[in-house]
């Protein structure tokens, strides 16, 4: 059972365009929603994250939009650059017993930004 | 400051063999976890630990054992490798505080034949 559904599986965008990746979750106990970026041969790295009491968060060219009632959130990459070509994972976090945060990941989106 | 390190980087095993994937962090993080990454399935949590001597199961724990004797190290053991365990394995760590960022290691690519 995939608790966090992500789409599309792959995305090709022209340089300077907008990349949009969508995620939906089921468990209302999730309390934090990060996006991770992964380059080939590397581990994922945190890109941007949002709490469910905020509808939008922007950091540079990256924006998360969050719709709590619809249980959906999305990543927008403005002015997409070839260096943004990577795999993007949405995730949802829940506190584990004893502390720490268990992450449930989406299935990932391979983004390619073409010149 | 090396962050999260994993060894080996690559490993090939025959079915039934056992091995230990090593993970170490030098950030004094209490929380450590293991994920496996498979095409089309994202990263799935195998086991996690909130401190030395405390471990718990994640989403896909079968076939894997963990222990946490120190804050720094969190090894993952495959007792009897199966082809279904062919995957890329990532270790991650974070503080126990409200910080939600988990720091991932570079991964171990494991092939079981």
Question: What does the model show?
Answer:
Chain A is mainly β. Chain A has strands at 4-7, 10-14, 19-25, 33-38, 45-50, 56-59, 62-67, 72-77, 86-95, 101-105, 109-114. In chain A, a hairpin with a 6-residue loop joins strand 4 (33-38) and strand 5 (45-50). The model of chain A has no long low-confidence stretch (mean pLDDT 94). With 113 residues, chain B is an all-beta fold. Chain B has strands at residues 4-7, 10-13, 19-25, 31-38, 42-51, 54-57, 64-66, 76-78, 87-94, 103-104, 108-112. In chain B, strands 2, 4, 5, 6, 9, 10 and 11 form a seven-stranded mixed beta sheet that branches. In chain B, strand 5 (42-51) and strand 6 (54-57) form a beta hairpin. Chain B is globular, with a radius of gyration of 13 Å. The N and C termini of chain B lie far apart (36 Å). The A-B interface holds A 4, 6, 9, 32, 34, 36, 41-46, 49, 89, 93, 96-108 and B 4, 30-31, 33, 35, 40-45, 48, 50-51, 54, 56, 58-59, 90, 92, 94, 96, 100-102, 104-107.
| Uncertain ranges of chain A | none
Work out the number of β strands of chain B: 11
The number of helical elements of chain A comes to 0
- The run of helices and strands of chain A is EEEEEEEEEEE
Q: Provide the β-strand percentage band of chain A.
A: over 45%
Helical content band of chain A: under 10%
Oligomer: heterodimer
What is the rounded Rg of chain A?
A: 14 Å
Secondary structure tally: strands of chain A:
11
Strand content of chain B: over 45%
Mean pLDDT of chain A: 94
How is the main sheet of chain A built? Answer: 6 strands, mixed
DSSP helical segment count of chain B: 0
Query: What letter string, H or E per element, gives the SSE order of chain B?
Result: EEEEEEEEEEE
Which chain pair has the greatest contact? A-B, 28 and 29 residues
Computed CA radius of gyration of chain B, to the nearest angstrom: 13 Å
